[in-house]
Amino acid sequence: MTVSKFSTLFWLLISTFLFAANLHAQSVPLDKIIAIVDDDIVMQSELKQRIHSITSRLTNQGTPLPPADVMHKRVLDQLILENIQMQLAERLGIRVGDTQLNATIDNITKSNNMTLAQFEAQLKLEGESYASARDQIRREMIITRVQKREVDRRVRVTDLEIENFLASKEGRTRSGAEYYIGHILIAVPESAPLNIIEAAEKRANNILAELKGGEDFQKMAVAKSDGRQALNGGVIGWRKENELPTIAEDIIPSLAIREPSKLIRTSSGFHIVTVLDKRGGNEQLIDQALVRHILISPSEIRTNEEAKEIIDKLYERITGGDDFAPIAKSHSDDPVSAIDGGSLDWVSPGQMVPEFDNMMNQVALGEISKPFRSQFGWHILQVTERRKQDMGALIQTNQAKRIIHKHKYEKELSNWLLEIKGEAFIEIKSEIKGLPSAESH
Hints:
The chain is of the alpha+beta class.
């Protein structure tokens, strides 16, 4: 074959290929770049998919949709901000592995009282695939970690701020004590003569004397109170400090549990109140356990089955007589507690994940628990001591700190998002329908 014939055949083949490709392009619309964001891009397909997802969710909730152009603008802004944060995560080396992702999805399904199959079916009803949902959840987890890393360092809560908050009306309402109040009334008719009033007072004093002598308040209320709650044992119910009955708001906080108050005189008669129970405030007795544990976690190079096999062998060694602390130091995947022989110090209820809490409460003092699993991996634990500790002041302080931190964090997050968006190069393509004209900075 001559060179000229080969060249002709070559270009004939190329022309045929280009013609076929052109026909295919006419039948399948090409995706388009709708925004350039620093070193990355946002595609039109991403925008359409996100709008579809949000529209389906809002429709299922019965929430009215905003106008199409407003929806496009808001969703594109959301995608651009996410893109900036994902690029930052890449530079910082922030990742979310499959183990962590699976644990999060498991928590999502459980919190919605769904199985994984039901969760997938619900996604399908909303027009979304399980794979895309996984990708979005992973993306949100990464972004949350970026935000926490970058914004937390900008938030400081001082002791003075905590003190001022606890002294404020909001602080007293949110972190103050709650009282379970009992009430006995000896009624006095309006405009009653003196002898009726004196008889009622005498009757009330007799009841008070019996209560001080150890009689049960609720039984006395059923038998002798004229109050509306008499048949319910005189129980008014739980009340916060700012919700206490006016006639006793200065008396109730000073009462011990089941201590009857002095007689309180009002136009309706003589009252006796008590605190049947109390929670919150600066006095709270908490059951604590002194715990140590060993954690073996699945990882990218260790399967769940391999982790279980390791923890089983460690359990056999310890129950066979080997010392807990050195094994924890050399094998535990919890780097903080491992240094101290697995010690977690004193642990309060709710401080750990539910699986850990449940085992901690079930295991006998000094006993090594059987291996159990949490979202972090496989554990064995030992409770070496138990106690009741007054944690009221610490709980109040921590609660106030969390509330103040949350307020500050939300404000700083908004500022930070504006900053990173302002510092990024963003170019929006003007040809996209429903979007504002091109802008770049």
